[in-house]
Structure formats: C-alpha cells, structure tokens
Design goal:
The chain has helices spanning 7-40, 73-87. With 88 residues, the chain is an all-alpha fold. The radius of gyration is 32 Å and the shape is flat.
Length: 88
C-alpha cells in the first residue's frame, strides 16, 4: 500500500493515457463519418469548381453615384433613451 511511484512511471502512465484518448477520438471521428455516409446512402464527393468566364469590364469609367448617409438621429435617440433608462 505504501508503494511510491517514480517520476518515470508517472510519465509513462501519462503518455499511454494521452495516446489512448487520442486514438479513441480518432475512432469516434471515423464512426461519425461512417454514419454520415450511411444516412445519405452515398459517399460525399468533392466536385471541382468549373472556371467561370468573367465579363469584360468596360473601359469607360462609370458616373459616380451619390450615396446618402442614413439619418442617425433616430439611432442616437434610442441609445440616449437606453442610457437614461439604465441610469434611472
């Protein structure tokens, strides 16, 4: 009962335990992949993407479009009301 464990024995137990854990995790990963294959009925295949031809850009520059900034007044009012409500 009073046996002492050396540092080397503790390291061996730690290494073996970690190897077992990782092997079980890999086994679980393969089981999940097998279940996915069985549930769909066919294995998952990766299709190669076909190159898509891009239209040629025109050489004339487009006219600049004016973009209006959204009204920030309502957002500021909502934030101020939330701060006022939280402060009492």
């Amino acid at each position: 009962m009073g046996e002492k464990v050396t540092m080397m024995e503790a390291l061996v137990v730690t290494a073996v335990s970690m190897i077992v854990v990782f092997l079980v995790l890999i086994l679980i990963s393969y089981i999940i992949g097998l279940l996915k294959t069985l549930s769909t009925g066919k294995p998952k295949t990766v299709e190669k993407a076909q190159p898509v031809e891009q239209p040629v850009a025109s050489t004339t520059p487009a006219a600049p479009v004016a973009v209006e900034a959204p009204d920030q007044g309502e957002l500021i009012a909502v934030i101020a009301a939330a701060v006022a409500a939280s402060l009492g």
